[in-house]
Amino acid sequence: METLTARTIRKPGRPLGFDRDAALHQAMLLFWRHGYEATSVNDLTKAMGITPPSLYTAFGDKKQLFLETVRLYTSGPITSESVIGEATTARQAAVGLLQASAIGFTGDSTPAGCLLASSAISCSAAAADVQKALRDIRFEVEKRLRNKIVEDRSIRKLKPKVDAEALAGHIMAVIQGMSTLARDGASREKLLAVSSTAMLAWPAQN
Predict the structure, then answer these.
(1) Is the pLDDT of residue 53 over 90?
(2) Domains in the chain, start-ordered, CATH in brackets?
(3) pTM for the model
């Protein structure tokens, strides 16, 4: 759902013997394609073109590397935060999230679906802290959308009886489902059609 923009986070000391941004991007693609637990350190070092000692020196352990790839995935000029924050109505925010997801889940140069969703599904109880980090990100997106709905209710753009919790949850559930459809091979056109159909459930404005 996010536009990807690499960020350089360098530690002081001896210069790295590889392109950190490029290596991080490759790690992100691997986690995106296979999920957190199914991706081994050996897989990562091969994809990143580095040795295990270099991985640990530059990124810490596998979990820290994964969380940094998540930050990369959720960064950029178009994010869920900017989509919701710049929308004039909650409806516009919901449409923006759905359309951005449809486009982001079907990129030409990236794996299908959502990195956050695919990694969360593949996490076992042993990776509870990783699951929590991903859950917190999803909850924050839902919270922002819910607050936008509440704001629209308060200024009578939506009827007072509208259930903000359920409506925000509906959009998030559709986005999660779209990720699964994308991983199953659904086209961008199909996901955009799903997005439009999902919005039929949006309540009419006052």
Answers:
(1) yes
(2) 20-73 (1.10.10.60), 80-201 (1.10.357.10)
(3) 0.87
